[in-house]
Amino acid sequence: MTNQAPPIWTNSHLDYQKRVITDYVAMLDPSDAPFVEAIGGLDGASGKFKFTATGIKYEWLEDTLSPLSVSSGETAAIASTATSVTLATGNVNALEPGHILKVDSEYLWVSAVGTSAITVTRAFGGTVAATHASNSVLEIIGQARLEGAESVPMGFTNLTNDWNYSQIFHKEIKLTGSAPLVEVYGITDPYEYQAAKSLPEMMRLIEKTLQYGKRATTNADALTTSPRTMGGVDEFLNASKSNIKTAQATALTVTDIENTLKMAYEDGSSGQFTAIINPTDFQRITALYNNSSFIRYPPEQTRVGMVPATIVTPFGNVDFVLDRWQKANYIYFIKPENMGMLTLRPWQIEDLAKGGDYERKQLVGEFGFAVKLPKSMAVLQLS
Questions:
Q1: Confidence of residue 304 (pLDDT cuts 50, 70, 90)
Q2: What Rg do the C-alpha atoms of the chain give, in angstroms?
Q3: What are all long-range contacts of 226-231, with beta carbons under 8 Å and residues at least 24 apart?
Q4: Please, what is the end-to-end C-alpha distance for the chain in angstroms?
Q5: Among residues 162, 209, 196, 165, which one has the least CA distance to residue 36?
Q6: Same domain assignment for residues 56 and 118
Q7: Residue-wise pLDDT tens digits, 313-338
Q8: What rounded mean pLDDT belongs to the chain?
């Protein structure tokens, strides 16, 4: 007779099993805002620009030292015998009698400054008079005043101003009358949950606005139908206001990076830069500097790999800030002390009017962005 195993009762039928659900909601939460943090948070401009947001438009003043070169405004070549040289519009403001100019290998001494032209002594200092191109750049290399000469007004620069607008960021939180009463795994208070989720979503939009924002507004009577928007980095760090260098992404070199910083250095910048960079471009930088010819600090024995958190160049050191929201192929070399955000209305949750079987709240804030001395910074564009 064969022995049979006793029957085993099981309760594993899925149709009748109680669900096992965690009382926690896991969320992939890339809520960081590296760019905002790098420039001092949502109100970092208050101290840097010495003003407080009390309006929707805000302005700041800038000045610069007199230039050390001027451009010719002649329509034809400058003859070797010419003693009067017309300059490009506004360039005479940088000169005064006694300035010594160098164009090509010839020196010129300025004896008089008119409204649009200068009178010069040619072949000054034993140089040889020559013909020069109509668009020549005349470098100011010194000054030699005549003994006993009358004082004359010095060259000057004019103050300039720049500006930006505040921009409203908003998200509505709307729940039915039943929703707060229904128990849901992982969510104790649905309003708090949605508000906590909305804030990082809004911060992502601010990060994007810092890159892509276009400065625009309409007249005051149309602000309820057409929004005002704040300009982002591209509004200020562009070819007309700042320093732009282009390079091939697949053939990026250390020289490309140094030449980008060199542009800012030649405009008077130096010291420390912060590079806002996306992951793909950061990998390019890592591969570029992962070379035995570069000096590194001794790595920790338990780690493998190399991440260039800081690089040293002849034109300034660079700290890298990895930003997943940064657009590809654009590396911003910024001076955090020269840019910042301004808060007109800090983030707040407000109750909205009830119109049916639901409750409404809104998360709202209003912020702006300011950038001074854009030529102290630079952008490397990869293609």
A1: very low
A2: 31
A3: 227/167, 227/168, 228/56, 228/165, 228/166, 228/167, 229/165, 229/167, 230/164, 230/165, 230/166, 230/167, 230/367, 230/368, 230/369, 231/164, 231/165, 231/369
A4: 84
A5: 209
A6: no
A7: 999 999 999 999 999 999 999 999 99
A8: 86
Residue position matching structure tokens 């390079």: 247
- pLDDT tens, residue by residue, 333-362: 999 999 999 999 999 988 888 888 888 888
Q: Does residue 173 sit in the same domain as residue 261?
A: yes
What is the reported pLDDT for 271?
Answer: 85
Count each helix (H run) and each strand (E run) in the chain, helices first: 6, 17
- Concatenate the DSSP letters of all residues of 276-327 into one string: EE-HHHHHHHHHHH-STTS--PPPPTT--S---SEEEETTEEEEEEE-TTSP
Find where tokens 């400058």 sit: 78
pLDDT: is 218 or 58 the higher one? 58
Q: Distance (Å, rounded) from C-alpha 242 to C-alpha 257? A: 16
Which tokens go with 26? 């896991």
In this structure, the answer to whether residues 280 and 194 fall within a common structural domain is yes
Same domain (yes/no): 192, 337: yes
Contact 366, 54 (CB under 8 A): no
Please, is 283 exposed, middle or buried when counting C-beta atoms within 10 Å of its C-beta (0-12, 13-18, 19+)? exposed
**Pair 54, 80 in one domain:** no
**Contact predicate 91/101, CB 8 Å:** no
Query: Do residues 120 and 108 make contact, with C-beta atoms less than 8 angstroms apart?
Result: yes
Q: How far apart are CA 112 and CA 65, in angstroms?
A: 22
Mean per-residue pLDDT, 301-305: 47
